[in-house]
Amino acid sequence: MAITANDPAVTKSAASAERAHAATVRMSIADIARFLQDNLGQRLTARITNISDPRQVGKWASGDSAPRQEAEERLRAALQVFQLIQDAESLYTARAWLIGMNPQLEDEAPLSVIADGRYRDVMVAARAYVDGG
Q1: Residue 5 DSSP label
Q2: For the chain, first and last CA: distance in Å?
Q3: Alpha-carbon dihedral sign for residues 51, 83, 32, 95
Q4: Those residues with Cβ within 8 angstroms of residue 98's Cβ, 6 or more apart along the chain or in another chain
Q5: Which of 11, 27, 37, 46 lies closest to 95 in space, CA to CA?
Q6: Model-level pTM?
């Protein structure tokens, strides 16, 4: 079966992905850390970035310090996926999706997969979820 640009499912995830990408690249890292801290908490946000002290997330969120490049990449990936799911569903669904076991990720939580640096795997799973797969 061929997939066309007029396929509503493809259009839904593609449009959500574009909006999520645009939102992510326009936000400062402090704003991203604050958003994730507010919606996931400091502990989960710290887990995404593989840091041991969750209070460091608060320092990033306030702009008192900036994360290292690897941590920033993970924060931006988490936000982009969060925004993709939230755009198509809701804030609560996005949070639940990120912390729950995911069969497309071998029953790992998407946040753990992001922490492992496998951003693309999570984005593929998120798009499949949005498209109803």
Answers
A1: T
A2: 15
A3: negative
A4: 40, 78, 81, 82, 85, 109, 110, 111
A5: 37
A6: 0.86
